[in-house]
Backbone:
């Protein structure tokens, strides 16, 4: 079949293209150009530098498959960059990679594939799609250390039907081996962890260049005692220790960001633990489930057993079986039943007073 | 790839090499491979090929042989002519060019600007013709160079070169009037002196010659500093061992082109017209520059509601190669600066494709190409 493969220029998607081609599929490679600097320059680090698209182009040439760079910069700027900046301005901790998957990549990509008469799209994500009587389930990758299902939680059964994740059952060393055996120059390329549009620089500079966040404010403890001052709330995220004034030898962490009053709350590690929080913008892969659930509150964080309570169609309260640290509003909470991904949504700073103990 | 397997409609980007050019190139590499500046028999043989080619090439443009310097291509010639005259000038010196130039000129002009010189980028009307009044106003006693392309590489729209040259010379006889004729020479017979062109950039591969060879034409009487320093080749104007086989290939390509130009132009014009008319029957579109003079081989089409990025990919998968403007290193293409200068609506600026025919276009291609485009658009909707 004809398959559109998203090629970032990294080893994973290179191998996906190579594997599918060797299985006899008609593979078309595409690099999604998501971001560029003010003068049209490509990012220096992250998943879509010009060196990366050049790598993808070389791999495509080596594999002898058609290859294109498609421009999604407008959509990315509107849905991801603006959102990233807004969230920091609101004292939230954004996850631009999830946001990109959620509102840019997959929708555009599946749409593009249909136009080009492709039956499926494929990416180099480590996750598994299981066809259970024509209901498509999303599962964690076999090798859990590389599992990326968290960033894919927004894909529902209907979308999954159009997608292939060929790396879900393969380990990273194996992927590199396949790349080497196919003669792909990306075989030993380093993985990228940076946010593509921020790179190795400090995200705070990126944010402060775009909005005025310089207004100084107070840093206080939970009893409103003044502990110091800050130069703008965008520089703080929940759970942050760096740049936080300590107290009597005890490390202090950011526990709450009060945007309205321009205040940063700090406290001890214990004050960071959360038992209940609310997810909004919740989506499910298939139906909602209530049994045997656990949740990841950050990418690749530990699964914490939990129960969920419906508030409305897209808002759920999460009750953790054990209080957990570092649940940051703005990040995503992704709910699993074993290895099966049930659904997920954005962690909010909302509190339901009436359901609090 | 055989031309029957793939419909190549990107001649404005580059053309396939003519068999005669290939033969001339090969023969020179084999029989006259020596350095044309050397002092022995084989060098003299190479030198002879070089100078005979120079004479012939000059004659094709109504130029004298010593007005022709060989370069690596059009980009080098444009860079050389636009940038080097400013090296020894104080910042009162000015440059005038247009907003629709090829990147080779635009980026050179921006480089001049970055050194502190005033550069006028003259606008154009919505058909892509440079605004003459604005152009005239931009020329003054400080203007060192005025650079206007003969015809635009994205739209094919021809500029009023002769008139502009006259304007320049009337205002400031010392201003060098430069024209990037890279795209025009593909299907136009040009006499530089008659047109008032005092310097020009030509590229070999746009007319079926080899890549990596071009011409910098500079009218007798003008002198510009060297761009590449080293040996004293090319009358001490350009250092570097001369690419004699490239020159021979270019001369051979040019000869075949000039001998067939009239009938080639007629055929291309005809096929392009069939292509445009057939498309218009079934698809809502606008042909750029339809009401003004344009080169016969370029058809820049604005589709009413089809994004050309996707269409270009789909056409490629259906066996037809076209482009959205100048080729770009990263692959992704920005909205064209030419269309932006023409103030094309934002809603449709990404709906343009450039179809460009060339010397190996055959009878029936227009109809065949229109069919492929129609079929592809149908599949996309």
Residues:
């Amino acid at each position: 079949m004809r398959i559109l493969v998203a090629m970032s220029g990294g080893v994973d998607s290179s191998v996906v293209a190579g594997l599918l081609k060797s299985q006899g599929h008609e593979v078309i490679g595409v690099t999604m150009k998501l971001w560029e600097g003010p003068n049209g320059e490509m990012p220096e680090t992250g998943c879509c530098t010009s060196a990366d698209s050049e790598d993808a182009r070389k791999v495509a040439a080596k594999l002898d498959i058609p290859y294109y760079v498609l421009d999604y910069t407008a959509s990315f700027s509107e849905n991801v960059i603006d959102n990233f900046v807004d969230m920091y301005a609101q004292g939230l901790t954004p996850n631009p990679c999830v946001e990109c998957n959620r509102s840019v990549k997959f929708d555009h990509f599946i749409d593009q594939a249909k136009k080009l008469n492709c039956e499926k799209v494929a990416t180099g994500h480590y996750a598994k799609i299981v066809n259970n009587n024509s209901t498509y389930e999303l599962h964690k990758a076999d090798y859990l250390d590389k599992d990326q299902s968290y960033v894919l939680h927004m894909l529902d059964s209907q979308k999954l039907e159009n997608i292939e994740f060929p790396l879900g059952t393969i380990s990273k060393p194996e992927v590199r081996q396949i790349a080497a055996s196919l003669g792909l120059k990306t075989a030993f390329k380093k993985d990228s962890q940076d946010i593509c549009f921020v790179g190795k620089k400090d995200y705070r500079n990126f944010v402060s260049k775009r909005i005025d966040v310089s207004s100084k404010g107070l840093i206080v403890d939970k009893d409103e005692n003044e502990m110091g001052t800050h130069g703008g709330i965008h520089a703080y995220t929940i759970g942050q220790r760096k740049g936080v004034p300590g107290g009597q030898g005890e490390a202090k962490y950011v526990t709450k960001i009060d945007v309205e009053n321009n205040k940063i709350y700090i406290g001890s590690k214990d004050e960071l633990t959360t038992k209940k929080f609310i997810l909004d913008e919740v989506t499910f892969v298939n139906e909602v489930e209530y049994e045997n659930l656990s949740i990841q509150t950050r990418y690749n964080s530990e699964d914490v057993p939990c129960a969920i309570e419906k508030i409305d169609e897209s808002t759920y309260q999460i009750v953790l079986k054990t209080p957990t640290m570092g649940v940051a509003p703005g990040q995503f909470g992704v709910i699993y039943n074993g290895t099966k991904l049930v659904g997920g949504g954005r962690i909010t700073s909302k509190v339901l007073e009436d359901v609090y103990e | 790839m055989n031309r029957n397997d793939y419909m190549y409609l990107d001649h404005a980007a580059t053309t396939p090499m003519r068999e005669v050019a290939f033969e001339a190139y090969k023969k020179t590499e084999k029989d006259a491979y020596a350095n044309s500046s050397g002092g022995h028999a084989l060098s003299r043989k190479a030198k002879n090929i070089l100078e005979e080619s120079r004479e012939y090439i000059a004659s094709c443009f109504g130029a004298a042989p010593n007005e022709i310097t060989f370069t690596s291509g059009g980009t080098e010639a444009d860079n050389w002519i636009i940038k080097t005259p400013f090296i020894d000038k104080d910042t009162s010196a000015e440059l005038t060019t247009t907003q629709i130039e090829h990147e080779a000129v635009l980026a050179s002009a921006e480089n001049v600007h970055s050194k502190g010189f005033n550069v006028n980028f003259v606008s154009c009307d919505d058909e892509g013709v440079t605004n003459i009044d604005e152009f005239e106003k931009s020329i003054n006693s400080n203007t060192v160079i005025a650079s206007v392309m003969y015809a635009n590489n994205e739209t094919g729209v021809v500029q009023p070169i002769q008139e502009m040259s006259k304007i320049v010379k009337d205002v400031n006889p010392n201003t060098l009037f430069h024209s990037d004729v890279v795209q025009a020479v593909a299907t136009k017979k040009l006499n530089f002196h008659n047109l008032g062109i005092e310097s020009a950039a030509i590229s070999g591969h746009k007319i079926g010659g080899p890549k990596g060879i071009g011409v910098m034409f500079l009218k007798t009487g003008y002198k510009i500093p060297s761009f590449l320093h080293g040996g004293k080749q090319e009358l001490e104007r350009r250092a570097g061992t001369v690419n004699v086989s490239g020159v021979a290939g270019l001369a051979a390509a040019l000869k075949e082109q000039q001998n067939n130009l009239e009938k080639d132009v007629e055929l291309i014009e005809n096929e392009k017209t069939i292509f445009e008319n057939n498309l218009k029957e079934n698809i809502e579109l606008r042909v750029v520059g339809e009401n003004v003079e344009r080169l016969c081989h370029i058809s820049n089409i604005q589709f009413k509601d089809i994004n050309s990025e996707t269409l270009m990919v789909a056409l490629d998968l259906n066996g037809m190669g076209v482009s959205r403007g100048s080729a770009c290193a990263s692959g992704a293409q920005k909205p064209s600066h030419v269309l932006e200068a023409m103030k094309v609506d934002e809603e449709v600026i990404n709906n343009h494709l450039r179809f460009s025919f060339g010397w190996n276009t055959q009878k029936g291609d227009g109809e065949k190409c229109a069919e492929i485009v129609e079929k592809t658009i149908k599949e996309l909707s």
